[in-house]
Amino acid sequence: MKVRPSIRSRLVRVGAALAGLLITALLLALWLGGPRPVAPLDSINAPFAQLDYSAMPPVQRYTARDGTALAYRHYPAATGQPQGTRVVLVHGSSASSRSMHPLAQALAAAGFSVDALDVRGHGDSGTRGHIAYIGQLEDDLEDFMRATPVAGGSILLGLSAGGGFALRFAADPRAGLFQRYVLLAPFIGQDAPTGRPGLDGWVSVGVPRIVALVALNRLGISALNHLPVTRFGLDEQAQKFLTPAYDFNLATNYRPSMDFMANLRAVRQPMRVVVGGEDELFRPDQFAPLLAAGGVAAPVTVVPGVNHIGISLAAPALRAVVQACQ
Predict the structure, then answer these.
(1) Cα(82)–Cα(28) distance, rounded to whole angstroms?
(2) Cβ-based neighbours of 68, under 8 Å, separated by 6 or more
(3) What is residue 145's predicted lDDT score, i.e. its pLDDT?
(4) Rounded to the nearest 10 degrees, what angle do helices 161-170 and 136-147 cross at?
């Protein structure tokens, strides 16, 4: 059936109007839909101000495939009882290898060789808050393992967002680069039952901007992925050392995939989870059921009286983490 010119012209006008509305909504989401400022979260900021960094080893470098020199710190195993295993540490959101210093010391004292990474976009690795593409962090980790081979096996240990990234890598075809995975209070996903509502006290997420960027990326447009989509609750002192915001690429890459259950179902290497009983960001009792639902036979250790940051600082937590690596 032929459409009369008057009807056709109306359809064209309606279509143009709808397209205009969609484009306007997209532009507004990109412009105004970014993360809001978030007040400093004392439970995360304060503990690090008290740490003694006097024995922290200097930064070393390895060269990633794009030619960028990325940073890490090496802690040699204590000579008394070397374990013959290397532990690679990936820090939490906004942080760097500095935040892993007490944990690295405890593991080295227990006989592990330890390498604490400044994940690209943090610390001394690249431009803070930015990476070039989604998947670059997996490439960087592979490049680190190729650049620093060890005779024994390696464990990937991640804290919080770093734990989420460790889960992401455990689901990657390159997961066999590590013999085991240890996740400390890991971020699994914003919709995971492990998260508490108070998580937004640490991070502000620009949901409208993320939705707009996801739509553009599905159309093959990634030119705006440098826009910030998350901000963290840092105080003035912490901002000197930490990363205050993530662009879309980094926020998407430094975590499990959006389908975190697919990540769990893809895990093949042995895995352990350690979480504080008083974690203010995550629900300790929900990790075991979630892992079981994903088919991951991972023991979960809950350390009584320990909060989110305490899982990498408090003496009982450090003992539990060392045991999880043994």
Answers:
(1) 57
(2) 120, 125, 126
(3) 98
(4) 80
For 258-269, the DSSP string reads S-HHHHHHH--S
What are the CA-CA distances from residue 192 to residues 56, 188, 259, 299 (Å)?
35, 6, 10, 18
State how far the Cα of 14 lies from the Cα of 19, in Å rounded to an integer: 9
Q: What is the pLDDT of residues 117-158, one digit of tens each?
A: 999 999 999 999 999 999 999 999 999 999 999 988 999 999
> Count of residues for the chain?
326
Answer yes or no: are the C-beta atoms of 83 and 77 closer than 8 Å: yes
pLDDT bracket for residue 5 (50, 70, 90): low
Query: pLDDT for 161-198, tens place per residue?
Result: 999 999 999 999 999 999 999 999 999 999 999 999 86
Tell me 79's DSSP state.
S
| Chain centre distance of CA 123 | 14
Rounded to an integer, the average pLDDT of 218-226 is 96
Helix, strand, coil shares, percent, the chain, to 5: 40, 15, 40
pTM of the model: 0.91
CA pair distance 53, 97, nearest whole angstrom: 11
Segment (H or E) for 208 = helix 207-218
Q: What SS3 class is residue 232? A: strand
